[in-house]
């Protein structure tokens, strides 16, 4: 081997070693960048469960409306008219109809006495209720507060969504706590979840729902949520809390 060949071989060897070190270094840099990226992603990206919860809460039938969460501006509802002048969001109508049919098939006489309400209707009902308390001698602020316990302040009623119905026994239509004893309520409390409806304002959850016990007000939340709310004996707010 000539000295030229030796030099050439050393140069080639040096070049190969240089390239190996370089590519190895690049590899390590790329690998550590990837690990860093993954770590960042792990911190910043919501978990699969969180994503699922966000998606579920976005469902139309899981919209939360209470005194702390008014109906969003410009909320639109397409109504289906019922036989007795009542109306509901067309999307919950099939389940509502099935529930009413099955309740009647059980030999009972349920009657929907309230359903969709416009803002104007809710305002009128609320004003009347305030007037009742004023007539009983309550000062104005107290009268409003008392009225708000039994009737949602306009803009915060689920009835304005078209997803809530008040159902009574045709033989006993008074909206008071005695309603829970009627056969219709007994049947609804036991079965409404199968059709996606929940008893929205249970007796022991008023501090969470903001509304007194109403053993006649049923809210459509879809079958999956209704089943869990029924099984776990929780209210809608607690259910949504558990999903977020
Ligand atoms: Zn109601």
What does this structure look like?
24% of the residues are buried. Helix 4 (119-135) crosses helix 5 (140-150). The chain is globular. A four-stranded antiparallel β-sheet has the order 3-4-6-5. It is an alpha+beta fold. The chain folds into two domains: 3-45; 53-117 and 157-243, Muramoyl-pentapeptide Carboxypeptidase, domain 2. Mean pLDDT is 83; it is low at 21-56. 51% of the residues lie in helices and 10% in strands. Zinc ion is lined by residues 114, 159, 164, 166, 217.
Which properties best describe this structure?
binds zinc ion, 2 domains, two-stranded antiparallel sheet, alpha+beta, 4-stranded antiparallel β-sheet, Muramoyl-pentapeptide Carboxypeptidase, domain 2, 244 residues
Q: Which descriptor suits the 3D outline? A: globular
Q: What small molecules does the structure contain?
A: zinc ion
The number of distinct helices, counting runs of at least 4 residues, comes to 9
Give the biggest beta sheet. Answer: 4 strands, antiparallel
How large, in whole angstroms, is the Cα Rg? 31 Å
Q: How far from one another are the termini?
A: 77 Å
Indicate how many domains the architecture comprises: 2
């Amino acid at each position: 081997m000539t000295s030229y060949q030796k030099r050439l071989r050393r140069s080639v060897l040096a070049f190969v070693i240089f390239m190996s070190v370089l590519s190895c270094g690049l590899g390590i840099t790329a690998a550590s960048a990837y690990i860093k990226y993954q770590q960042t992603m792990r911190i910043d990206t919501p978990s699969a469960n969180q994503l699922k919860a966000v998606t579920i809460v976005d469902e139309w039938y899981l919209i939360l409306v209470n005194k702390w969460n008014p109906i969003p501006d410009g909320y639109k509802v397409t109504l289906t008219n019922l036989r007795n002048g009542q109306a509901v969001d067309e999307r919950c109508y099939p389940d509502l109809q099935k529930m009413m049919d099955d309740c009647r098939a059980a030999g009972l006489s349920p009657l929907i006495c309230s359903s969709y309400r416009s803002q104007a209707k809710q305002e009128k009902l609320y004003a009347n209720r305030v007037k009742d308390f004023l007539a009983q001698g309550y000062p104005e602020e107290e009268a409003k507060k008392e009225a708000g316990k039994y009737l949602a302040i306009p803009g915060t009623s689920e009835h304005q969504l078209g997803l809530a119905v008040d159902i009574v026994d045709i033989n006993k239509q008074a909206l008071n706590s005695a309603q829970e004893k009627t056969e219709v309520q007994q049947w609804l409390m036991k079965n409404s979840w199968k059709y996606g409806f929940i008893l929205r304002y249970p007796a022991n959850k008023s501090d969470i729902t903001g509304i007194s016990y109403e053993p006649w007000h049923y809210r459509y939340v879809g079958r999956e949520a209704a089943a869990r709310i029924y099984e776990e004996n929780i209210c809608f707010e607690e259910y949504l809390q558990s999903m977020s």
